[in-house]
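User: These chains co-purify. Model them together.
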Amino acid sequence: MSTHGEEELNTNYLKVGSGVKSWLLTLDHKRIGVMYLVSVILAFFLGGVFALLVRLELLAPGRTIMTAAQYNRAFTLHGAIMVFLFIIPSIPAALGNFILPVMLGAKDVAFPRLNLLSFYVYVVGTIFALFSIISGSVDTGWTFYTPYSTSTNTSVVSMTLAAFILGFSSILTGLNFMVTVHKLRAPGMHWRRLPLFIWGMYATSIIQVLATPVLAITLLLLAMERVFGLGIFDASLGGDPVLFQHFFWFYSHPAVYIMIVPGMAVVSELFATFTRRAIFGYFAIAMSSLGLALVGFLVWAHHMFTAGISEFAAMLFSALTFLVAIPSGVKVFNWTATLYKGSIWLTTPMLYALAFLVQFTIGGLTGLFLGTLATDIHLHDTYFVVAHFHYVMMGGTVMAFLGGLLYWWPKITGKMYDEGLAKISWGFVFVGFNATFLVQFIMGSRGMPRRYYDYLPEYRPYHAFSTVGSWILGVGFLIYAAVLIKSLRSGPKAPPNPWGSAGFEWATESPPVLANFKDVPTITRGPYDYHLVTEEELFDGFPEDAPKKA
Amino acid sequence: MNHEPTVQLPGQFSTFASHVDSTFYFIYWMSVILFVGIIGVALYFVWKYQRKPGVQAEPTGHNLPLEVGWTVAPVFFLALLFHWGFQGYVNLTVSPANAMEIRVRARKWSWDFEYPNGAHETNELHVPVNRPVRLVMSSDDVIHSFYVPAFRAKRDAVPGQYSMMWFQATHEGTVNFFCAEYCGAAETSSRNERGEEVFSGHFSMIGHVVIENDQAFAQHLERINGPPMIDGHEATPAQWGQLLYRSSQCYTCHSVDGAAGTGPTWQHMFGHPVQLTDGTTVDVDENYLRESILNPQAKVVRGFQPVMPTYRGSLNDRQIDALIAYMRSLQ
Amino acid sequence: MSTASTTEHDAAHGHEHPKWLAHHFDSPTQQFDSAKLGMWIFICTEILMLGGLFVAYGIFRGMEPDVFHHAHEHLNWRLGAVNTVVLLFSSLTAALAVRQSQVGDRKGTTNYLVVTLLCAAVFLCVKYVEYSAKIEHGLLPGRCFGHPGFADHCINAGASVMPAAVHGLTTRASMFFALYFMMTGIHGLHVVIGMGVLGWVLWRNLRGDFSKEYFTAVEIGALYWHLVDLVWIYLFPLLYLVG
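Assistant: Joint model of the three components:
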């Protein structure tokens, strides 16, 4: 398996071997990335169906389509699937696996077997999650708070083990990426020339490697608690239920940065390519990713301001939480400044990057209400929080994923997609997303608590509006799926560099050969040095695909 | 102090609501300005610097003062926010020494309030206006959270520990309270008096805080200690029991029309023998019913799960008598 | 895929590309450094994972130092000390195995690896003796606490089985044993995994995979074993010598 002939190394990676086995046993990071991609898209679809069911139930007060117990399962599965099966692996494991080594000029990730193992660990985790769903499902919320999670009758142990196993998949990917970035950079690719996508992935990997094991031990303790009544989180045995929240958020707050930092990483690439200039404040953006990774470890208790932590702890964690605003702000300011005097090409990926900018700014600013102690007490566990994190996770990361997928689609599949149809789907997604979630801020600040099956009549107009928004969003995703399917079936052949990007991943063929580059590339400029190359050089070899030039 | 709701926030009914709201609106307007500023500039650039034939992007330069500026300037705003937020938080958590104490017990899925005179009430909290009130909260099962939007106050009730919250209401009126920490739901539904299907769970742990003057509050405490008045007469024990059946949330598990539920139906229950999970049989009489209310796990009827919480401490003897009288009336 | 084409490939490039060097690495040094860095990062992960348990230990011991003191007297510190010596010695032999591998002494490597594996087995046997004594005395935590033997009522029996006082310990001592079993259990699992890793290294050594130039697996296998040893060095005083 591990040895390839010279000829194979220089063959289109999709054509090296055929048949199911050539995929399932591949050690090629590109094929593993594609397998991850298919998996996370399926997970996103499943999680999305649960989201639409939840919104449909909330269309009107009282019973709409399901019972209270079914509703609790639906929102739990929506959360658990989206977090553990979709967002965390989406950009790093799917897009990152494909792009990161190509960007570095490496032939593969440092440990290809470990990479494949990580994918199968993900598959095993998914099987546990599906087993949990069919064997009674879970109704704890994705946060698994004790003592609810230790006392409910639902299938908590298998879902916890699923998250435990998926955590190891995430750790292995992070470890692999860290070593790859350190050891496998092409000649000339020094740290100041690393693409910002790589910086983001690197920061993400640090969090994956250091935070995920804490989740693993926490979930293991939870499973033991359920099976043996261990007592660590059980007040009647001298344990402490709030300790679970500390442990859980020690992972899950950094996990928020596992989700958003890759989104920022993708968007930095999109801004550079479609403004045709270097990202303003490259160094600041790179360092702010690391800054977020670091500060992300120090803010976990801000999820627990109403749980009875001491005033001193509340003060400390509120102050540290505000620190997160600085690197986030730096990124937004830098992206905006990048647009200045650029040559802005409004492709669909760029539209997604702009949607990210708008929605992440809203998500970030509304975070200020939640970091501020006095207002957090009022807003905690209301729809305001739901809207806030959807603006960051979905308005941010998912937009970056959708944009990044279209941006790298020609590289991954070797085919172009229908730009017109893609723009239509973007319109639906943008309008639908904001219609669904903007109104939830108002609902929340007016006191509507989250995870409510039924609600007081005064909240009805907001809920109805939000549900209609979710339908628009759903249509947007369906059109997006149609864009991908249409491209696979009948998309025109993609040139090596359809966007005329100066990024290194575009310097090889579309799709890349097995070894990524026919000759080991030597890097002589930065990834965004548009002033050192001409448009013709970038679009070289495929002039008919270049946009009309003077 | 404005007790009318605004577009974004509920009416203000507590002493600290105005501080919270002014902080809220400060962040809100600051956010609006920043958002319009950033996104306005971005959209202007997108329009102005669209890709045009023959026009190259200008190479990116450096502007150190600008970069340092937008890294450092937010620190001052953030410090201000932190200061106001912490100030408000201290107001919310440190209660005055002379506060009236009300004991709050949360359980799936109702709130029990015990007033200083020992009177109990479920899912309705009466408080005197303009007097500090401290809630001493605990939970019988999982974590719950007591949330009164109009007071801008919220605190978790955690099993195995006491948690405190306090407020001082500023107006008479009735406001909502909610459970804010997810705590599950019943698998099955039941019927309310209008025959509609109702579910109980996290979302049904809601109720009203009635803020009234000292006199009305004192009268209310008198009233809930004994049978309520119906049409000018004191309610009979069975009538009172019927009211307690609703207000103590018995109906979420026990039907009175023979329908299946989480617990046995009360119809034709009294005076008949019933088989228990350990195989023995008991007669449903006053003593069995009283034991089952106070120590529900002692003798569980066959075919049902031992899930009923104890009502020890939340129903007084007269109320238990009234409930039993009501069950008797259902045979 | 085939060996033939690999040979051609090497010849075409005109530089040495030994068969143990994976195609995506340029040089043996790069491959070795990558493997070593990878193992160090993995060790960080492991430490963070066990860190969760150490934090829990710190919190609960801080809350009830007396209970922990009384509970620890039920552990046999002599057996713990024996295991500490055994593991320390196995770490030494693991390090010697790496050294013999570096100088190309295949037989020496084999011998030291076998001794390391034997030490690991001794460790597990002692652990087995300790565990069975605890279980017989009713010191399993939680619902099992105070109910001698591995009674099936303590597993998945619902919350109705409450712990009972045993050997003069209150039910609150259950927390100490919860942490004892979790910490030593996870450590024991690491010993088993470590034995698997070293066994695999031994097998490859017997097969003749290693040489003066290539001994990466021996080195990172031993690195992992040192972690297993190091964790025990912390567990022993915290659990057996507390107070």
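The CA atoms of residues 46 and 81 of chain A lie 8 Å apart.
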